[in-house]
């Protein structure tokens, strides 16, 4: 949480990212341009969108490779009469 308090008390997991974003926002003349990286880091910490996207891409490739191997294995096995 941006308040700094986690669910079990103490610091929240994303609070350091929020601090970096807030620091940049206060110090910059044009925060929309200069603080986009800090804002994206904070959003990623909260929602894990990039991580989940990468995970789904890796999972899709894994499934495709698994299917290719299964199809290739079936083609190389001679049929018994």
UniProtKB/TrEMBL annotation:
The keyword Electron transport applies. Pfam families: Ndufs5. One of its GO terms (cellular component) is mitochondrial intermembrane space. GO terms for biological process: mitochondrial respiratory chain complex I assembly. PANTHER family: NADH DEHYDROGENASE [UBIQUINONE] IRON-SULFUR PROTEIN 5. It is a peripheral membrane protein. It comes from Spizellomyces punctatus (strain DAOM BR117). Coiled coil: none annotated. CDD domains: NDUFS5-like. The keyword Metal-binding does not apply. This is NADH dehydrogenase [ubiquinone] iron-sulfur protein 5. Disulfide bonds join 14-45, 24-35. Keywords: Disulfide bond, Electron transport, Membrane, Mitochondrion, Mitochondrion inner membrane, Respiratory chain, Transport.
């Amino acid at each position: 949480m941006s308040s700094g308090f986690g669910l079990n008390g103490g610091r929240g997991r994303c609070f350091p990212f929020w601090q970096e974003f807030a620091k940049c926002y206060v110090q910059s003349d044009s925060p929309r341009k200069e603080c986009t990286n800090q804002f994206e880091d904070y959003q990623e910490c909260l929602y894990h969108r990039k991580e989940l996207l990468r995970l789904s891409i890796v999972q899709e490739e894994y499934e495709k490779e698994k299917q290719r191997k299964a199809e290739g294995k079936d083609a190389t096995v001679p049929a018994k009469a």
